[in-house]
Input
Amino acid sequence: MRTHLISVEVENRFGILARISSLFSARGFNIDSLTVGETEDSTISRMTLVVPGDDQIIEQVIKQLRKLIDVIKVTDLTSEATVERELILIRVAAKGINRAEIMRIVEIFRGRIVDVHPLSFTIEVTGTEEKINGIITLLRPFGLKKLVRTGKIALAREEKSNSIKAVKN
Amino acid sequence: MKNRIGAEVVIEALIKEKVDTVFGYPGGAMIPLYNVLHDVSKLRHILVRHEQAAAHAADGYARATGKIGVCMATSGPGATNLVTGLATAYMDSVPLVALTGQVPTSMIGNDAFQEANITGITYSITKHNYLVKDIDELPLVLKEAFYIAKTGRPGPVLVDLPKDILNTRTTVEYPRQVKIRSYRPVYKGNLRQIEKAARVINGSKRPVIYAGGGVVASNASEKLIEFAHQTSIPVTTTLMGLGVFPEDDPLSLQMLGMHGTFWANYAVSEADLIIAMGARFDDRVTAKTSEFAAQAKIIHIDIDPTAISKNVRVDLPIVGDVTEVLAQLIKLTNKGKGRETWLRKIVRWKEQYPLKYDKNGDLKPQFVIEKIYELTEGKAVITTEVGQNQMWAAQFYRYTKPRTFISSGGLGTMGYGFPAAIGAQIGLPERVVFDIAGDGSFQMNIQELATVANYNVPVKVAILNNGYLGMVRQWQQLFYKSRYSQVDLVGRPDFVKVAEAYGVKGIRIEKKEKVESAIKEALATDGPVIMDFRVDREENVYPMVPAGAALHQMIEGLA
Output
């Protein structure tokens, strides 16, 4: 079982998210994360899905997505060279001497403190999954109060993008 | 430019798409549409007595004629009553366009009277659906709906029409053509894959063609016959494929699967090559998948890429339309070597393990079907309900032409056969249409007696009346120590009297000797006939592959 990163271009229409999520629940596929937003072309949205499954399941996920009428293009980015990012907001308990230590960690991870409270910091961090998991691990001992993550977004790197494979059939 | 209201756009679309018949049931949200329909002589509206029957009748019409079936219903309960019919059509890839009323756009989401989120409800049982929120989009949406329903792998498309949209004016014209950037079905198979497949076929010694409903949908019957004869490859069909290859042809193995013939199931189990086409390796076909065609390479031709390697790993997939791919394969294939031995082996199985039943004693359901076959000279269009009646109809009637066996294969919808027969009969008025029914299934859409009476639709319904939910009873008998839980349909009505109450002819048959005269009488009647055959209550369907067993591990009822 491996986690796959799938990029889906869809018609930017009413109900498209419901169609995609309905497909996943109807077929019994799992989703670790899903992000969606408009692209450079306002009639098209791009979704980035992180889907766990063996090869056969992933093959079905991709084919079933392509079968939806409003889906324009599906690309499995897993084995492609990609740029991946995720954004998180973490609210961590910050009292006394801990405040300086937390600020150092945030600096190392090139994060930003976006809200300051006498007893806590709210921190914004962007990066790869590894980096995000890294800062969470380091901040956890101080006491995590709230955490929210956007889920992964990704694009294939320009030079490696395989246009033939990506065409919807 | 024509300025007309939404309801007029819908009717214009139906006429431009050459729809001659719609099956429906009006209601509040649909009154604007029915108001326009009232003056249109080119469109025949069949008023069914339950919306589910509208969907099934449109489905039966589509399967029998190859055209798109159209049904309509009002918002809320009207729309939700279509759901089973849409799911049935979706599972069997039947091209339907369903038009539903909806509450006015300003009221959507307010739990208005007769409101249901029918697009949300039907996402996973339609090929596509639309909720029209802008009158100017209506012409294109309708054009797309018809295009999507019939192209690629066909399926039902639902268009939800809010009442205000039906009453709002537009000047946007109905498009002549449509192109959808995100929907481009592939018809031509990849030539390199086809060449590879031809080499594998030419080198095979024990090949079997496994043909499904997709061959019917593709109208590829003639190509299949040509291909099979040219290569001397025997053909087994699924339930959905019955008739696509003539069952009186020496190369026919008839149906495979849970209640398939011994020789079809043995042939698949011993084959060195399976050529699957327009079939989806359903669990009722493969039985235990790990042992399905264990010695065979598998070539799979299908227009739907998702069907490939979904249930069973395929060695050589060809995505494309069966007709187009077969046309290519015919150019590249030959009789191979050593197939005579294989065909002789199959003939021996056929002789050794024929389909049979105990001909002594009570009136047997299989006998009724054999007689219907004999007296209709195999030329009737047969629809079925679901359960034992469906399997006996598949086994004991010989199908020689596509679109003559119409049955809910995928979803297995009880209550399908009677309304489907109505649709088939209306689509093919010159043909004899028989619904092979069970007493349980028939009662699920028994209200359609009013429809056949209303329009004098001359369908013949043969109820194989055993007073049980026979297939469930059979499973309980065989696998649950005869604990018959909730399968005895106590309180079944007198079907002859019920028919007569609707003004329909009813005949009861209790003895073997009366079967022939009753069928003859039904065939001579210029109108609908309900035949109540009181059959052996505990007759079972054999052969049978028990759940979890491999395809060759069939059980037989008779010693």
Q: What stands out?
A: Residues 90 and 147 of chain A are 5 Å apart (CA to CA). Chain A has a mean pLDDT of 92.
